[in-house]
Amino acid sequence: MTRLSLVLMLVACLGMSAGVVFAQDSGGTVRGQIVDTTTAQSPIEGVEVRIVAQSGEEFTSTTDANGDYERSGVPAGRYLISIYREGYGDRLGKPVTVVNGGDHFVPLKMTKKDNIVTFFQKFGFVFWPLALCSITALTFIIERLFTFVRSRSRIGTEQFIASIADSLRKENIMEAVSTCEEAGGPLANVLKAGLLRYSQAQIEERDITKEEIQEAIEEASLLEIPELERNLPVLGTVAVVSPLFGLLGTVTGMISAFTTIALEGTGDPQQLAGGISQALLTTAAGLTVAIPCLIFFQLFDSWVNRHMVEISQVSTEIVNQLIVGEGDA
Description:
The chain has helices spanning 2-25, 116-121, 127-151, 157-169, 173-183, 186-203, 210-229, 232-264, 269-328, and strands at residues 28-36, 48-53, 58-62, 68-74, 77-84, 91-98, 103-105, 108-110.
């Protein structure tokens, strides 16, 4: 009887040892639930779960209707869990350490990809002023580009000035006027006004002063320069107010996020971070509108200043040449 008891005890010990060894060799279990990042945290079905070891060995699973996944028999070691689902953003590299016989619960969340409608809905009420700013900026940038392209002289500036000077040396005012009409542009139009005033004085057989020619040039400049500057204040205003609208959207979004915290507690940090990132989206949008708008505003403003300096310098030179020619005559 004693021998039988000893045999039974030995068999039991061997069975327990074998069970422990089997449990150690069978690895661990990785399971969890995958939900979306909305407030409802709805489970997501059909998510592909990949558990990848450092050696490259891979174990896979798929979530059921409740968003649950489970993979048993994963050897002990360190793994990275990645999840994939069409219509959702991939989440890569969630670390987990598996031990033999362990049951590892790893819950995960996925964010649904935005379509064009849901993306713009994130902006809230700020979307409309930002959209208006962007459309306004794009419209006037294109309009100003066409204006400055049309304002370019059809003849090179140096060639144009040389041709005018040559006509004046020959005392052929109408040839100089024809050159201005052929060249076109603000500079040519301004000089044409001064030349016509000088030609009118010659027809009337009267003396003309330098101030009278300059007055005609200044009157023409008052017509040309505002045309070049038109709509630039609008671009400057859009460049200033767009970031402010974006900041307004961010502030209101942060107020909403912290109001939720005050009412419901800190809750899920990931959800809180998502709300804050969504609030910052409007600031990014405002800067996206303002930066190119400011660049083009500065570019157009420099073009206007260059035209003004060019008109001033060339007109002064031409006026002096006319007066000198008048004195010689």
